[in-house]
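tool_call predict_complex ligand=pyridoxal-5'-phosphate
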Amino acid sequence: MKHTIDNIRDAIYGLEAEVEIEGKKKVPAINLDNGATTPPFKAVMEDISQKLLLYGSIGRGKGQKSQITSDIYTKGYETVKKFVGADTDDYTVFYVNSTTDGMNKLASALIKSTSDIVVSTRMEHHANDLPWRERANVYYVDVKEDGRLDIGQYDSLLRKFGGKVKYVTVTAASNVTGYVNDVHAIAEIAHKYGAKIIVDGAQIIAHRKFSMIGKNPAENIDFFVFSAHKMYSPFGGGAVVGLKDMLTGQEYDPEPWIHNNSIIRHIPCFYGGGMVDSVLDDDVIYTKTHEVFEAGSPNYPGVAGMLKAMEILTEVGFDNIEAHEQKLLERAIKGLSEIPNVILYGDSIKYDDRVGTVAFNIDSIFNTIVADSLAKKRAIAVRDRAFCAHPYVRRLTNVIQANTDNACGREAPEGMVRASFGIYTNEADIDALIETVKLIEQSKVDIDKTSLEYTSNMPNDRG
Ligand SMILES: Cc1ncc(COP(=O)(O)O)c(C=O)c1O
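tool_result ok
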C-alpha cells in the first residue's frame, strides 16, 4: 500500500483502541497530543518485527545476523543525512535516544568553558535551554507580543559580543504555538559573527520538509537534533546531525573541569564500549569518529523504526502534510475562537508559519481541569500546564516571573491547554475538540468548584 495523506489513518497502529470515559462508556481515544509523542506507523511495527528475525549484535560480532544488523544500522546514517538534506561530506551523524539526550551530548561535546557564550531564545523547550544554561554563559533573544521570535534582536546581540558568541541555538518550531522559525535567516546572522548554529528539530521533523542546507552556504545549519518518537516510531530513537570537523577527530581532553561543584568532561558525555580504539592500563585512545558519542550497545529497534518512519513520511510528502495541517489549523482556530471566553495563543489570523498546534485557555478555568475534562467527556488527549517551555508560556500568558521556590510549573495561572495534530488527525477530531471545549465552557461553574482539588498535589510538568 502506498501511503498517502488520504489513507494514512489506516496506517496508524492503535487508532481504534478504546478507552473508558465518564459513565463507564468505552470509545476510541482521540489523540491531540502528538506534540508530546506520536503513535507508531503499522509499517514501523511490521518492519521492526521482521528485522528482529535477523537481529544480532551491532559492530562486534562475526555471525551473519550480527553482520546484517550492523549493515542496516550503519547504512542508516546516510538515510538520516538525506532526510534532513545534509547528505554532504561536511556532516556526520550519531544516534541518540531523544532530543533531550542529543542536546545534552552536543552541549557536552561543544562547550569547553563556562565562559563560552551561547545565544538561545525565550521560546525554547527546556531541552534546548538547560543543557546550555548548565554549562555556558547564555543570553536570550526574546519573543514579540504575538509570540513570534524577535529575529531583529540577533544582530545587535551578536554584535555586542563582537564575535565572541560561540553558538546560537534555536528551535525550528515551537512546541507551544507551533511557530516555525526562519532558522536559515538566523544561521546567516550567526555566521556573520562567527558563531555556529544549533537547531532543535523536535517539532519540525514530522511536520515540514527540513533541509540543513540553505540557499547559500552562510544559511546552512551546523547542528540539528530530533527524536523519533515524535515521528511515528516511539522506540527511543533520534539523531544528532552536525559538522564532522567539530564532532570528530578531536583529541580527548583529559582535564576535567568543575562547574556547580560537579566534575564535567568535555568530550564525549558517556563512556564505555564501542567508542575506543584502544584502552591501555593507564591510557585511553578514543575513536575519532562519530562512534565516540555512541558508547554501549545501540538501540537497534529505535534506529530501525526511525528509518522506516522516514521512508513513510517521505512517501506521503511534506507538502501534503503541511497542507493538511493548515486546513486543520484553520478549522480549529475558527471553531475555538467562536467559543465565548476562549483565549487563543499565537497569531489566529496569519498562521501559515505555524505547524498544527493550538494553545488556548478558557478564561477562569484552570488548564488542567480543561484537559482532564476533555479526556473524561470525550477521550480527547491534550496537554496542560507549561509544556517544558516555562519562560515562553509565562510570556504568552503575561505571568510575572514566578518565585523559584515555587517552580516546576506549580504556579496556577502559568499554563494553557495544547492540542497538537498528527499526520492522521482529521476534521472529526477537531470538531470533537471544539464541541467538547464548548461544553466545558458552558459548565464552567460546576467545574470551577473542583479547581482546588486539582491544583494541589500535582506532579512535575513534563515534555
Ligand atoms: C521543541 C522541543 N524540543 C525538545 C523536546 C524534547 O524532546 P524529547 O522529550 O524527545 O527529548 C521537545 C519535546 O516535547 C520539544 O517539543
